[in-house]
Amino acid sequence: MKRVFSSPILPLVLGAALRLLFALRFPAESGDTVLYDELATNWLKHAQYAMDVGGQLTPVYVRMPGYPAFLAVVYAITGHTGAAAHRAVLVSQVFVELFNCLLIGALAAILALLFTETVNLRRAFLAGLWLAALCPFTANYVSVILTEVWAVLFTALAMFFLVAVFVGATGASSLGRWSVAGRNYWWAAAFSGFSVGLGTLFRPETPLLLATAFLALAVIFLRRAEFRRFLLTGALMAVAAALPLLPWTIRNAMTLHEFQPLTSQNVDSPGEFVPNGFMNWERTWLYRVRDCYLVSWKLNGEEIPLHDIPDMAFDTPEERDRVAAILDTYNNELTLTPEEDAVFAQLASERTARHPLRTYLWIPLRRAVRIWFTPRIELLPVAGHVFPLRATHQFDPVDQRVTILLFFLNILYLALALWGALRLRLSPAGRAVLAFFFLYILVRTAFLTTLETPEPRYVLVCFPALIALAAQPFLPRTPSAT
Questions:
Q1: Among 103, 77, 104, 113, which Cα is nearest to 92's?
Q2: What are phi and psi of 30, to 5 degrees?
Q3: pTM of the full predicted structure?
Q4: Burial of 101 from C-beta contacts in 10 A (0-12 / 13-18 / 19+)
Q5: Which of 195, 348, 394, 396 has the fewest CB atoms below 10 angstroms from its CB?
């Protein structure tokens, strides 16, 4: 029995079973599914990264090309279309996610070496692998056509190499038998940047990982008076990150006559009006995903009843009346006009002037708490109702139990990560890596609070670091002098 549990085969088998359960039993859809599918299909059939705009195939840059390229490859290999093609994609994502688990196990092992060179690396790897394989929050996203699986992959890969960069930067120079000095240091820097570049082809905000690494490295190198080495490291990582983006940037320049290495945050389709006023108004009150379903994601497609907007969106009865008047017109046309959007912009300005801390501090903080402490059930056929306890239990006990279980499981992963982080503080290299991880999580979370919709899935790219840290408490050992 001990041999069974000390083998990576069992966690991989259980991880595959969990992911296949999500992919085949609980497949989900997203608003972006149709968009990604159209881009991939047109790319495959017409050799154009384009969308149907007004009955004409039009080149676009509404999404980064990595995920549509993945879909196109799966469609071409399987020869499937429609539901069968989507099922093939979900099953393919199961294998990508299993590789993610292996990467997270490797990241947990390299973190363990920040304590001592005599640590049992196999045990560290297995602890990370078990936690990653059984994590339902990352596993759940194999069931939907979205970029999360690939975003986690390239983030984990970049973090693996960045840990080596930080070890070399602190002067520790080695991880076990692997020297991070000399040529290996520069290779680690290059591969970390290249991994970030590949990840950017799937998610345009991936360079945040490199930006936080630069900040943490700046502190280390400037304290050591190694300014030249810092510049060379930063330049190498930046150039390596830019390389995968070159074909995409050149394509946009030649086809669309624009310098556009990344997609714009609010661009959905060519010439489409962006309701910035409406989104600014939402930022003065919206902090939970539930309201995205009721309000945000209905815009320009469905009616938005006034009673679906929470009371905290209105400071006065006069505000409510102004919004009601706009919605009366909007619900007849199902299209928000620039004039109506201007009214929302004025409302946002007035609410922010009245309570600036609410817009710039309290709502972002509430968004951050929701993002991190949600039970993460948005892809499951679960309503997520817990209170009132007795009435909800009588109405749907399974729904309530699943929601509570996932809520506390999420807290368990976060608590284990914090425990592991407290152990990493003992070595200089460990403190550097820990500072980088926490800075990245902080910057990433702050960035997410500025987006139109505070979706919990956007912090999944932080889970490789969290799970690798969560594996550390399972490894009894003595501190290292690293």
A1: 77
A2: -135, 160
A3: 0.92
A4: buried
A5: 394
